[in-house]
C-alpha cells in the first residue's frame, strides 16, 4: 500500500506530511510526519475563493482528470485540491448521469475511485433529507454544492467517544437510515453545537475529524440538492453519533450507484 503524503503550501513553506500509510511498515519518521499532518489540519479550514493564477477546471471530466493527476504524486497540496473543487462551475448536463435519487434518504453515488487514493462521489438529497451526525474516519473531506443548498451543522466530539461495536448500521444505500437498532441505556451529554452554515451552489467546504463532527441537511421543502464530495483517503466505515447522548455507533458506508450504474450489491 502506498502512503499518501499531503502537502500544504502555507505561506510558501512547502512542508511534507505523511498521511495514514500502511501502519505496519511505518517508520518513526512516517509517524512523526503523520503527527505533523494532524497538527497541520488543525489549522487548515478550507479556502473560499479559487487560487489566483492556478489552473481552472472547465468541466467535470476536466476536474476528474486534474484530480487524478494531482493524486498521482505522493505529494498532494490540500489547498490545491480545495482550489480545483472551487474552480469547477457546476453544469448539470455533466453530472446528471451520476445523480441517482432515492425517495426516502440521501444517496451516495461513486464517480471516481481515484486509483485507491481518494473517492469522488455525488450525493443526492431530496427535499428535507439529512445525514446523521458523523465523523470522517480520519480522512480529509471536501464538499462542493452542484445544485441547491445544504446546511451544515458542526458539533464538538463527545467527551466519551468510545464505540459501541454491537450497534452497526449502514448509511448511503437506502437500506437503513443508521441507528435503527435497539437503543441501550447510555448516559452521555448532549453534543455541543459549534457552528451552522449554508453552502450555496458552487461553494466548497472542508472538514476533518480535528475540526469536529457534522450533520448535513437539505433545508428546502421544494428543491432537491446535489453535492460533490472528495474523501482522501477513501473509507468504508465511519461513526455516527446520537445528538442527545453523544453515543457513538460504527457505521458502514456504501454506494447507491457506482460510475452511473445502480450498485447491485446494495440493491433493495
Ligand atoms: Fe460529512
How would you explain this protein's 3D organization?
- This is Cysteine dioxygenase.
- Fe cation binds at residues 134, 136, 214.
- Helices cover 15% and strands 35% of the residues.
- With 268 residues, it is α+β, with helices and mostly antiparallel strands.
- It has a domain at 100-174 and 189-258: Sandwich (Jelly Rolls).
- The strands form 4 sheets. Strands 11-7-13-5-4-16-17 form a 7-stranded mixed β-sheet, covered by helices on one side.
- A hairpin with a 6-residue loop joins strand 14 and strand 15 (248-253).
- The relative contact order is 0.20.
Summarize the structure.
Fe cation binds at residues 134, 136, 214. The protein has helices at residues 28-40, 60-72, 78-87, 92-95; strands spanning 4-10, 13-19, 75-77, 107-112, 119-125, 133-134, 140-147, 150-155, 163-171, 193-199, 204-207, 213-217, 225-232, 237-241, 248-253, 257-258, 261-262.
Write the topology of this structure.
Elements: E1 4-10, E2 13-19, H1 28-40, H2 60-72, E3 75-77, H3 78-87, H4 92-95, E4 107-112, E5 119-125, E6 133-134, E7 140-147, E8 150-155, E9 163-171, E10 193-199, E11 204-207, E12 213-217, E13 225-232, E14 237-241, E15 248-253, E16 257-258, E17 261-262
Parallel strand pairs: 1-3, 4-16, 9-15
Antiparallel strand pairs: 1-2, 4-5, 5-13, 6-14, 7-11, 7-13, 8-10, 8-12, 14-15, 16-17
Could you describe the largest sheet, including whether it forms a barrel?
A: 7 strands, mixed
Please report the distance between the alpha carbons of the first and last residues: 33 Å
The strand count comes to 17
User: What's the CATH architecture of one domain?
Assistant: Sandwich
Contiguous helical run count: 4
Within the CATH hierarchy, at the fold level, what is the topology of one domain?
A: Jelly Rolls
Mean pLDDT, all residues: 83
- Shape assignment: globular
Rg of Cα set: 18 Å
| β-strand amount | 35-45%
Low-confidence region ranges: 9-26, 174-182
Summing up helix and strand content along with how strands pair, one would put the structural category as alpha+beta
Ligands bound here?
A: fe (ii) ion
N-to-C SSE series?
EEHHEHHEEEEEEEEEEEEEE
CATH class of one domain: Mainly Beta
Helix content: 10-25%
CATH homologous superfamily title of one domain: Jelly Rolls
Amino acid at each position: 500500500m502506498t502512503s499518501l503524503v499531503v502537502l500544504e503550501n502555507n505561506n510558501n513553506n512547502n512542508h511534507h506530511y505523511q498521511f495514514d500509510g500502511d501502519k505496519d511498515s511505518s517508520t518513526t519518521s512516517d509517524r512523526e510526519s503523520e503527527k505533523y499532518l494532524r497538527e497541520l489540519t488543525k489549522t487548515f479550514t478550507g479556502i473560499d475563493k479559487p487560487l489566483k493564477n492556478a489552473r481552472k477546471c472547465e468541466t467535470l471530466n476536466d476536474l476528474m482528470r486534474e484530480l487524478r493527476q494531482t493524486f498521482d504524486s505522493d505529494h498532494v497540496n490540500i489547498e490545491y485540491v480545495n482550489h480545483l473543487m472551487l474552480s469547477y462551475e457546476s453544469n448539470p448536463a455533466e453530472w446528471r448521469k451520476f445523480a441517482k435519487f432515492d425517495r426516502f434518504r440521501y444517496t451516495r453515488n461513486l464517480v471516481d475511485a481515484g486509483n485507491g487514493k481518494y473517492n469522488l462521489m455525488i450525493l443526492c438529497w431530496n427535499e428535507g433529507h439529512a445525514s446523521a451526525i458523523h465523523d470522517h474516519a480520519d480522512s480529509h473531506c471536501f464538499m462542493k454544492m452542484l445544485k441547491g443548498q445544504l446546511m451544515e451543522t458542526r458539533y464538538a466530539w463527545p467527551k466519551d467517544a468510545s464505540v459501541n461495536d454491537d450497534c452497526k448500521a449502514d448509511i448511503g444505500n437506502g437500506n437503513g437510515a443508521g441507528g435503527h437498532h435497539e437503543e441501550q441505556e447510555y448516559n452521555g451529554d448532549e453534543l455541543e453545537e459549534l457552528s451552522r452554515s449554508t453552502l450555496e451552489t458552487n461553494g466548497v467546504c472542508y472538514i476533518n475529524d480535528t475540526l469536529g463532527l457534522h450533520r448535513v441537511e437539505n433545508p428546502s421543502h421544494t428543491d432537491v440538492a446535489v453535492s460533490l464530495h472528495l474523501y482522501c483517503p477513501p473509507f468504508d466505515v465511519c461513526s455516527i453519533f446520537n445528538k442527545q447522548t453523544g453515543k457513538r455507533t460504527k457505521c458502514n458506508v456504501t454506494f447507491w450507484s457506482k460510475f452511473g450504474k445502480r450498485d447491485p450489491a446494495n440493491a433493495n
